[in-house]
Design a protein that fits this description.
It is a single chain. The protein is α+β, with helices and mostly antiparallel strands and about 250 residues long. The protein has 2 domains: about 190 residues, Bira Bifunctional Protein, Domain 2 (BirA Bifunctional Protein, domain 2); about 40 residues, SH3 type barrels (Roll), CATH 2.30.30. Helices cover about 25% and strands about 30% of the residues. The longest helix is centred in the last third of the chain and has 22 residues.
Length: about 250
């Protein structure tokens, strides 16, 4: 495990950092450490042996890519905490924009970042709590910085930052940029509310105003991507009228 100091002024104040050589998953490690943490902590691993993505899907991590989880305790209900996926997406977008052409980046609802149409990063949120407020929120991120996962089929083909002409950057350096961007987004949420986070996300949304397909566990809807509402739901304008969709996989 690495505990080297981060140059002053780069790493956001009030956030701790743990870097591991290998772990089963940074999300699992975050859950194990939750009770002993004093404040917001980023946990990064160079290798994961049992990483997972949304809906339990396997997440591959070629060497050099970023796998990290931020665990902290926001003053938020479970629905409010879930909206941090948009905050995380905005932070990832801004971090990647420092190393790639931002005009090639876009945000795919609910939790992916696209680069030149391919998936370059994903987000996974998990929270714990027995009452109305969350005890801990874990924000997991995976970013293909240099390597492209092999054998991935269906959905959006994975790409990496460098495969699409972006600047090479180490996982540690990218984490520093991302952590700073996330802290900025959290401060923006505190000062301006989710409406501003939502507006920023929509400004970079993929296929806004165009026809997309959303597949839930039971149904499939095709319509015009109208907006994301204040609860974070996808709003489609279909032939039968507006459809408000809280969770789905999106295709276009």
């Amino acid at each position: 495990m690495s505990t080297e100091p981060v140059p002053k002024g780069l790493w956001p104040e009030g956030y701790a950092r743990v870097i591991l050589d290998e772990v089963d998953s940074t999300m699992a490690e975050a859950a194990r450490r939750a009770r002993d943490l004093d404040g917001p902590t980023w946990i990064m691993a160079h290798r994961q042996t049992a990483a997972r993505g949304r809906r339990g899907r396997v997440w591959q991590q070629p060497a050099g890519n970023l796998a990290a989880t931020l665990i902290y305790k926001p003053w938020a209900t479970v629905p409010e905490a879930a909206k941090r996926s948009f905050l995380a997406a905005n932070a990832l977008f801004e971090a990647l924009a420092l190393f790639a052409d931002r005009s090639l980046l876009s945000l795919k609802w609910p939790n992916d970042v696209l680069l030149n149409g391919g998936k370059v990063a994903g987000i996974l949120l998990e929270s714990t709590g027995r009452g109305p407020m969350v005890d801990w929120l874990s924000v997991g991120v995976g970013v293909n910085l240099g390597g492209v996962p092999a054998g991935v089929t269906g959905g959006f083909c994975p790409v990496s930052l460098t495969s699409e002409g972006g600047q090479a950057v180490s996982a540690e350096d990218f984490l520093t940029v991302l952590a700073s961007a996330y802290a900025t987004q959290e401060a923006k949420l505190d000062a301006l509310g989710f409406q501003r986070i939502r507006e920023d996300w929509l400004r970079n949304a993929a296929r806004l105003g165009e026809t997309i397909t959303a597949r839930t566990m039971r149904e499939e809807f095709t319509g015009i991507f109208d907006t994301v509402d204040m609860d974070g739901n996808l709003v489609l304008i279909t032939a039968t009228g507006p459809q408000i969709i809280p969770a789905a996989d999106v295709y276009f």
